[in-house]
Amino acid sequence: xxxxxxxxxxxxxxxxxxxxxxxxxxxxxxxxxxxxxxxxxxxxxxxxxxxxxxxxxxxxxxxxxxxxxxxxxxxxxxxxxxxxxxxxxxxxxxxxxxxxxxxxxxxxxxxxxxxxxxxxxxxxxxxxxxxxxxxxxxxxxxx
Length: 143
Ligand code: ZN
Known about the structure:
It contains four helices and three strands, in the order αβββααα. With 143 residues, the protein is α+β, with helices and mostly antiparallel strands.
């Protein structure tokens, strides 16, 4: 398996032009993530309104997978309830760790399926899931 096959156009495009980039002003909830294996760092901010993720943003440095995953994470959870956001993370994590029975037919994953190839590269699982772990931690953080 060629590592190049991991870098689909969607991933490269999000790496070049990350969505929802920047800090959110207080009172927002934030969490940091670090992946020393690859050198990726990410900070995620979000605001909760009526149990929904009203705003979500990130700033990060690191590889294309970590940045694209953070960018697409923000799009995937914005507007979702806390429970829905955790559900998307659970399905995403199952997919990148190769424990999802059939990611291709999972409507919850949507565009996130471009990361299904990560399951074949165990060293990149942390890159792909870093921002998601930070998002989950931010959900539980105090504003
Ligand atoms: Zn990485």
